[in-house]
Amino acid sequence: MEVLLPALVRGLGIGSTYALLAVSIVVIYRATEVVNFAQPALMILGAYFTSLFVTSIGLPFPVGVVAAMVAMAAVGALTERVAMRPLVGQPVFAAAMVTVGVLIVLTAVANRLIGPDILTVGDPWGLERLEFGTIAIFQVDVAKIVLSLGAIGAVGLLLKRSRIGLAMRATSLDQETALAQGVDVGRMFSLAWAMSAALAALAGMLIGTGAGGVEATTALVALKALPVIILGGIDSIQGAVVAGLVIGVAESLARAYQPEYAPWLGANFDIIVPYLVLIVSLMVRPYGLFGTPEVQRV
Amino acid sequence: MTATPRALRRGRPELYSDYAADQAIWNTPAKRWSTLAVLLVAASLPWFLGRDLLGLGALVAVYAISGIGLNLVSGYAGQISLGHAIFMGIGAYTAAVLGGSPSGSIRGFELDLLVWLPLAGLVPAAVGWLFAPLAARVRGLYLAILTLGLLFVGEHVFKEATWMTGGSGLGRKPAEPTVLGFSLYEERVVLGTELSAIGVFYLFCLLLLVVMAVLARNVARTRQGRAFSAVRDRDIAAEVMGVPLLRTKRLAFTLSSFYAGIGGALLTIVLGFTTPERWNLLLSIDFLAVVLIGGAATITGPIIGAGFVVLMPRFIETFAGSLPEWFVSTAIGGTGLLNVFQLQRLLFGAMIILFLVVEPRGLFGVWIRVRNYFKAWPFSY
Fold this sequence. Notes:
The structure holds 2 protein chains of 2 kinds. Chain A has helices spanning 4-32, 39-57, 61-84, 92-114, 139-161, 163-173, 175-180, 185-208, 225-232, 237-261, 273-284; strands spanning 129-132, 135-138.
């Protein structure tokens, strides 16, 4: 129990961060049918802005986080307007490759801003622990779970209940019909990118909490959101949450038990667990647990 | 006795009266002559250029070989692969284990190039052949994500197999390019001039590039090549018309991995050293850029693209000094807005975006536009 429970909580903590990143990709996919490979760069820039506002400028932590999310929302909307909008109506493959270009550009920008430093986001949790008898769990894991699921819930509610959410869902169903009904489709695309970038910023802050801090190379962690969206179903927010938690826990359990029980798998095996889940999931159920099967027309 | 008019003897270059002429690789005299001229210039470079530029030249040839491979699977057959770097790595390590020298716990058998070079292609090809049925189950972006998974799993295996790769962060030396006791990486006197070691190896890479490019071009214009394009354009329709999907995709992956393996083996020799971290996502993206910037579904395209991707950073490095100091600082710890590396990456990413948005056919498409303009000159259509 002393190993299992903390591993589970840590897994749920990191898993909820993956879920948050996955939802940020799903939001863009539902609006534009583009898988956004630039998410790692958006995440790392979000962590940078949080660190800038909280650690360097000295804003209170919650205010700094919100400010970073707003700043990243602007970056996201700008990226969509400059790089993605010219490709509306083109094959989705071309658009996905453009996001790879965006990834390279924004990573270079993040490299310039962060340099060789290790950033701290100035979070109030640090290495504080909650003790339950002999079992100790990190506060930061609880914070990750609460904040991620809260943010995902807010996005879900926004999409389901608000007028804007209705317009966004209409856009994702059929762009031309939505246009005919008076929805400003272009604005919905911008909005999706802004929302997605803000969520990525929040996830970047959560990745940067605790002991580690954030380096420019931490960005690659965000690629683990891709296994999550595949397992959960590429267009499902609910699926992203379930799959994020599953993959986070699987990774955490592998980290806790693999060195002892299966050392022949090598050091740092837990890093590739999400990708193994990804490969198996694509073989067994290509459209994921909650995704819509793709309709193929000749 | 009237002499045949000259125009009639030469034939009419744009008039094809049989399929063979239409499908020929060099179907116009202009193409024949320009190819020959480019080849002659490329082959004469070792007599004119310095060692560092010849190193870049060899790198261009190697990138072109791998790029042509990726273009077969992604450009012609439409199967987007982010896992190209892993197949290159498998080729590189096959070559290094068979042709390299052992040191400590690292294996090496010091075999001849005639043994390791074919195997550096065949082993990745076999892995590609085994991987293809998995890849054939998914389409489009799902395949891109699947190959991304393969990339991370492969990198982990490379890091763990220290007897093969030397281990994470340590690395190993590549294979020795020796044919029957004759080293291809050694100063030699050719045509009265002493060529540098890299100059000799550059000529070898160039020769391989020509052979493999012609081979790929020939594959592309056969029945199999047309099957590739059919699968790319509409896979279900292709299947309905009798193109076996699995077999076609399998052939594309196998061929592409063969090219990747050869490219990977040569790449380690040009660079002189390799760590398991080299075969990562960034290298795969480099090759996607070679294909996209050069021109998808062409053979000339990846060769131009390889030149662009390899030479652009060097070009920026050379001319960064003449840019204002507040914008780009060339010294370490300079105060400029960017350093040279950041400028290189920024422009690299921007080029990918720009080509996809403005000219999806890549640099080859730019050339087609220029050519058509002059062909139709003085008319604008």
